[in-house]
Amino acid sequence: MRCPPIVLRIFFSCLPLLIAPIAVANEALPIPAAAQAILDRHCVKCHGPLEQNAELRLDSTASIWKGSSAGPVVLAGDQTGSKLLQVLAADAELHMPPKKQLGDKEISIFREWIKSAHSRPAVSLPAANHNVPNDPTAAIDFFLAAGWQARQVTPAALCDDRTFIRRVTLDLAGRIPTPEETLAFLFDGSPDKRTALIDRLLASDEAARNFREVWDALLMGRRGVRREERRREGGWHTFLENAFKKNRSWDDVVRTLITARPTQPEDAGAIWFLYERRNDHQQIAEAIAPVIYGTRIDCAQCHDHPLAGEIKQEHYWGLVAAFNRSRNSENGPPAIRESASGGFMNFTNLKKESQPAVMVMLAGSKIDEPRPEKDEDTPDRYIDPSATVKVPKFSRRATFAEVATRDNALLARSFVNHTWAILLGRGIVDPPDEMNSKHPASHPELLDWLAVDFADHNHQVRRLIRAIVLSRGYQLARGSDSASSPPEAFAAALEKPLTAEALARSAQLASGRETDDAFRQALMERFPDSPIRPARATIQQTMFLANSEQMAALFAPPESDAAPQTTVEERVRAAFRRTLIRDPDAEELARGVEFLQSHGDSRAATGQLIWALVAGPEFLTNH
Amino acid sequence: MMAQHTPPPGSCTPAEHQLHRRLFLKGLAATAPAVTSFCGLFTNPVFAESTRKAGKNVILLWLCGAPSQFETWDPKPGRPTGGPFGSIPTAIPGVHFSSLMPQCARLADHLNIVRCMRTKQTEHLQAINLLTRGNPDRAGFTRPTLGATISGALGTLDTALPNFILLDPNPRGNEFEQYKASDLAGWLGPEHAPVRLGGSYTQLKRTADTLTEEREDRLALRRYFSKRYETERNSSIAASQNAAFEKFKGLTASADLFDLTKIPEADRARYGPGIFGLHALMSRNLVEHGAPFVMVANGMPWDNHVFQHEIHQMLVPELDRVLYHLVTDLETRGLLDHTLVIAMGEFGRTPWLNAARGRDHYPNAWSLMLTGCGLKRGVVVGGTDIDGVDPHDRSFNEQNLFATIFTALGIDPYAEFDLPGLPTFHRVEDQAPPIQEVLA
Hints:
Chain A is mainly α. Chain A has helices spanning 7-13, 15-18, 33-42, 61-66, 83-86, 104-116, 136-151, 161-173, 179-186, 193-202, 205-220, 225-233, 236-245, 250-259, 272-275, 281-292, 313-323, 396-406, 409-424, 444-456, 461-470, 500-511, 517-526, 539-547, 549-554, 568-580, 586-598, 603-614, 617-620, and strands spanning 326-328, 336-338, 346-348, 354-356, 496-497, 621-622. In chain A, the strands form three sheets. In chain A, strands 1-2 form a two-stranded antiparallel ribbon. Chain A has a two-stranded antiparallel ribbon with strand order 3-4. In chain A, strands 5-6 form a two-stranded antiparallel ribbon.
């Protein structure tokens, strides 16, 4: 449901194939994304991973050039001879798609592709990988620069200090900077002040809270005030915040929440990932897949993924099997018990073929498990048969957690890509939780390099975040012309909507007033979007911003309406600095002055001026 | 076969999904389906254009928590399951309603009652999803709810009133609260999500700032700054936020429709003092002003596991009064011919009482009411056995209900949705037939 990726993206992902400098064979000519999108929508259901009518698959470059049992379906440069085009015609004898007629626009995309298939220019290659710097920030800059070169785009300049402090404070602390912080930063003359600011923010408690808020939304979803309250009471928030504060390695965090047998009191909340899902093992499987594989696998419940052929039904049920001996403990404090027996199940594919579900990883490895002849729940199968929450000697959960976090390169890739998306506004693979063959990376070498580096450095979350925000790519200004620079080039800053939490704190800072938690809750109800999904504005949000008592109270005039001490111009400037962390330009200043003067320059009018800025898109996004 | 594994409620079992997949893979899904691409479906379809001109509307009285069929449409007086309330004759010869519904009994020849609903979800959240989406919800492809579908099919994007209005003043409601917080627009996208109004959710009235007189000024100032930003930055987020503000401005122009002080006292008195009646009355006015879909709810009051008779004795007379006046008003004002009125919950209640003298969840045999919009009137569809345990012959499920609703509205019930990367969907799957008896 997103825009089809542009041609260059496919191009770039095929770079390894194009390294051979001469005579690229047909088989390696990439299919334009627009054409592949039409194939995916109209053809792949019968000519793809699930069914291969006429032995034809149209889901990948190689298979398209390979053709069907009757020979090639696409002849490069030959429109009349290409069978693919012949069958699309309205009067074709063997008409495709069987029940539909593709439009002229769609067919012309195919024509264009086939016509130009011979004359596609080769992409000039960036320097070979052995020049990659060791430092992760330098490596990011290296790979992004190579991508700009290959895409022939000019990156935006570095952003100014005001833009930078707003952007990085929102991303790391979850709020806009205060006027005092902004001033101090602007007057700081030291050359490495951006690095110093980043390090100060990363060490703050606010950064831990922000990390918790973002990852709580990603791991658990926003499910309302009551669940949030229970998560807090259950220690889930503490667990996530501690993970950040103590720089706990990400694989350890994930291992702990899958195993869900906390040994330290401060980890007690780690069980909440499973506990809140109340024995719904499929829901657990669907929630853990993006974390450990980087891709959602929901649709593989009933069949292999219809487009991303590597995602099989066995992977879905393998994840279910990892958890289906586990149940919430009904007695005593929250805990997840696990049975030593049972949990053997079969799943059935579309052809009604049945096979046993075993724990199999997306990368292919199977987890062995003892299968006793008599599967009885005997005391000798538990470590301590008299324990309140018994632990089996062979624990599927614990075994799976080990493999998923110690022998699974996808874990690091997923975290790197998600973190990139949170900070840059778009994943290297986008959407970040669809890292599969259907969603090519915009910068595959960068993703590979960062994932390996992250894993090699003990999955250190703060080190990764620091490397990204220090990079030139993160610190670019907003582009003036988005048409010339596609978002996946990362050649200019992308805009990201503020999360509800960041919005609540920032609105409070802009108003200079205190708010209560009800304000944050009201915003969370109206701005529920996930940090990695594109947000779209609703009337509900507008109603709240424009007309709620809570917003009105925030921007109401102070009790004493004493005459302002400063000039009208200064008051407008101050409003801009406080809310948007910048000065107004001449027109904005004039418009603001006019507004204040038309209301007798009252304090009430100043409040409304600030409101007009806070309720606007510049305030409501990070950019 | 699935051994030692029961799929959780609310998920499609592979067997069901398989049927659906097989149907479309083998091309048996429809004899002549209206094939429409996902993107094109709502922008330029012939059928929706004609429907739009016809000006059809829907009011859904969502009786959340699920009322008892025994104390409403399908009484079993004198039976062990029947409860303490008697039954009364209605305007339809031979048909009896609960004695708690005297006004609807008089109006029965204007109503249609389906007494043989039979569905498969016993838990609130899953059942609410089932009965408002017409199919079980599944992660990965969230089906739009009825209101969103109708917003897409009947609504226009440039009207003052939102296409899908949810009038529910109650911020709580147990599982219904979770439902309200979930994605109700599904793959149609947030422009078809409900605009929630009613109670403190109605934030259209001028707020108590000291510049009340100049409020338009404040919005104009905002528009100036944000339009500049949108243009200079070429910002898509700004564009959508600014568009939402413009729609909001259109909605504020209709603020009087939500202003309690503007509603005549005589009307208020007829619908009664309750908040549910007030919002039903509001829905009448909204439909009169062209709102395509209004859903009226009030938290989850009907889930009477405890003291069912006592609580129903309070709730049913209110429903009786509100429904009577709503249908009568719509008829008097000439709106009923193009307004579909539905009153239903997510399932029925058990024929037997539990230890707390409550009735528990019961999807096996239950009743609902729908009328207007060209449907026949005064039809009672199906029935249940002597104790109301099972439908006595035929039964209908959520798919039949949705096919009936779409047919009544002139919307193709079996239109296809081609979503990128997903199986083909239909508005109603499996070619489930509508309930013919009520279709004219």
